[in-house]
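Run: sequence + flavin-adenine dinucleotide -> complex structure.
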Amino acid sequence: MPYKTFGFSEQQIMIRDNVLGLLSRVLPADKIQELDAASAFPEEAFQALAADGWLGLPIAEAYGGAGAGNRDMAVFIEAMGYHHYGVRSAYMTTAIYGGSHLQYHASEELRRELLPPLIQGQLKMCIAYSEPDSGSDAAGIRTSAVRDGDDYLLNGQKVFITNAHVADFMVVSAKTDPAAGRRGLSLFLVDARTPGLTVRPMDPLGARTSLPNEVFLDDVRVPAERRLGEENAAWPMLMRGLNQERLLLAATSAGHCLKILEVVQEFAATRRTFGKPITEYQAVSHKLADMHMLTETARLATYHAADMLDAGEDAVLETTTAKIVATENNFRVADLGMQIMAGNGYVAGEMQRLFREARLGPIGGGTSEILRNVISKRMES
Ligand SMILES: Cc1cc2nc3c(=O)[nH]c(=O)nc-3n(C[C@H](O)[C@H](O)[C@H](O)COP(=O)(O)OP(=O)(O)OC[C@H]3O[C@@H](n4cnc5c(N)ncnc54)[C@H](O)[C@@H]3O)c2cc1C
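>> structure
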């Protein structure tokens, strides 16, 4: 048993054990290091996840999925975050981000056409909202979509788009009414092979097996039936997915904390200085205790938010809190772990990779600052 189950049901224990069993076979530790060094997408693991039906976990049964609830999804994503931050990212851009847009916002025809191949691992997706001048301010984008007969013509630039370099379809946000602020935004499902679309991978600090990319759109022609939802109606569609996104980013970080703790405990148990194991120094054992408390708190916040969502509550405060707590704890755990492993953590290897990965949490999917704004606004209302 790799880590405590946190009161999981039998089915949730099965989810955890099955996905960890699969990943340890197809993506062992040395393979993770190899892929990270090569900045290569974990294709074999992605296909193995698809073959075992995991890509359909969050998708409704009507389209061939399992329609899992929030706690089940948190258990699954925590296990992925524990095994490898990057393979979790490979999963999420397609199954969670792309999959929910198709499931909730695409026409019935598009759902029937694209969800089954998505579940089978035959197509990958990404979401393209951020722009060079507009990351946190998602409504301040400049990419435009102008109607041209039965199509739209898209022009602009996106940045930091995870897995755009391997995606078959991108969900792109664009202004259809530039003067209307967030009421002038629309979403489009763009085939990545469309002429005028260029993708250029970027060079990130961590999570290098799911690269961020620049995406350039130069008169990219998109049929009107590939617009997701109504024209100018993207803002509530974007807001709709935020609770689940924040929950699953929190679950990722909770899992990542568990892995770091395991790696560092293993190191500390055998490392000796001045003739003694370093765990005999309180300066070290207290750091391990702090890492445990931070990990436990990350999990508490995550599973509390999942339970609130499953109970049908308006859980904006809880999911937002969970995302901040888990991602910030994750980086603190990584920093404490690095200090304990010292030179052996700093040079290339597992701890260095974990440290680099952990820095992304408080930035991606809404920065900690923006999310604190969300919490304070909610507290006022
Ligand atoms: C590796 C990686 C992968 C990503 N993947 C994707 C993706 O797949 N798709 C996508 O669309 N985007 C993606 N992003 C973009 C990500 O969502 C943005 O980086 C994030 O929203 C922050 O935007 P920014 O980097 O432009 O920072 P800015 O918005 O420029 O913010 C700069 C600083 O100012 C602070 N700040 C800004 N506004 C406020 C405010 N109102 N109050 C307080 N503080 C404020 C921020 O918190 C931050 O500290 C990714 C980013 C990274 C690094």
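>> summary
The radius of gyration is 21 Å. The beta strands are 125-128, 144-148, 151-158, 169-175, 185-191, 197-201, 213-223, 227-228, 272-273, 276-277.
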